[in-house]
Write a structure and sequence with these properties.
It is a single chain. With 226 residues, the protein is of the alpha/beta class. The chain has two domains: 148 residues, HAD superfamily/HAD-like (Rossmann fold), CATH 3.40.50; 68 residues, DNA polymerase, domain 1. 46% of the residues lie in helices and 14% in strands. The protein contains ten helices and eight strands. The strands form two sheets. A six-stranded parallel β-sheet has the order 5-4-1-6-7-8. It has a two-stranded antiparallel sheet with strand order 2-3. Strand 4, helix 6 and strand 5 form a beta-alpha-beta unit. Helix 1 packs across helix 4, helix 2 crosses helix 3 and helix 3 crosses helix 4. The radius of gyration is 17 Å and the shape is globular. Its EC number is 3.11.1.1. This is Phosphonoacetaldehyde hydrolase. It holds the Pfam family Hydrolase. GO terms for molecular function: phosphoglycolate phosphatase activity; phosphonoacetaldehyde hydrolase activity.
Length: 226
């Protein structure tokens, strides 16, 4: 098996933003009169396009929630997140830049994908000082495709963007079950969970990943394996 492309999730996987997104999702939902816990928000919403995450968290109470309510909470979430990101000291996850460099030296393309919209993703990337095309090959966001995770559409777009023809040569790495399901839906050869972000090893294992790793650099032996 030869891996030609690795698609990495952003928040929790390659970007350390102190879980601010899911803290903000919870704050916006609970400001609308609910009392969901942080664990509920992360178990249900991790990795999803954020209006979908809000919809799925609200559904936990067993009631019907109209699109107008979801849209209002999502709008509040975006305002809160803008303020949070303006103040946030974003860092890369340990080893991210070095891993990207080593993969690309091996001829492996590196793509970031995310449940964020493109504007939010680019803001994060700028805070890190990363440049698309220089530090990694391509960025694909939830706003670039019609279907978000768990559908594999972002990975399929990434393959087209960097001219990789078969998912048999693609690895997906992410910190949530939905990242793993996304890779499985796209037919990726490797669907790897990582314990640095939103979900625990036990939760990740429920999605039946190819492997679970604890550090980004643990990926290299899997890529180098014959």
């Amino acid at each position: 098996m030869v891996i030609e492309l690795v698609v990495f999730d952003m928040a929790g996987t390659t970007v350390d933003e102190d879980n601010v997104v899911y803290k903000t999702v919870r704050a916006a939902i609970n400001a609308a009169g609910y009392s969901f816990t942080q664990d509920q928000v992360q178990a249900t919403g991790a990795g999803k396009e954020k209006s979908q995450a809000i919809r799925d968290v609200l559904a936990l109470d067993g009631n019907d929630h109209g699109e107008e309510e979801i849209a209002a909470i999502f709008a509040d979430f975006k305002t809160r997140l803008q303020l949070a990101y303006d103040e946030l000291d974003v860092k890369e996850q340990p080893g991210a830049s070095e891993l990207f460099r080593q993969l690309r030296e091996r001829g492996v393309r590196v793509v970031l994908n995310t449940g964020y919209d493109r504007d939010t993703a680019l803001k994060l990337i700028r805070k890190l000082g990363w440049n698309v095309g220089q530090d990694f090959d391509c960025l694909v966001t939830a706003s670039d495709v019609s279907r978000g995770r768990p559908h594999g559409d972002m990975i399929i777009k990434a393959m087209r963007d960097v001219a990789v023809s078969s998912a048999d040569h693609v690895a997906k790495v992410g910190d949530s079950q939905i990242d793993i399901h996304e890779g499985q839906d796209a037919g990726c050869a490797l669907c790897i969970g990582i314990t640095t972000g939103a979900q625990s090893r036990e939760l990740l294992a429920q999605a039946q990943p190819t492997q679970i790793i604890d550090r980004l650099m643990d990926l290299l032996p899997l890529i180098d394996a014959p």
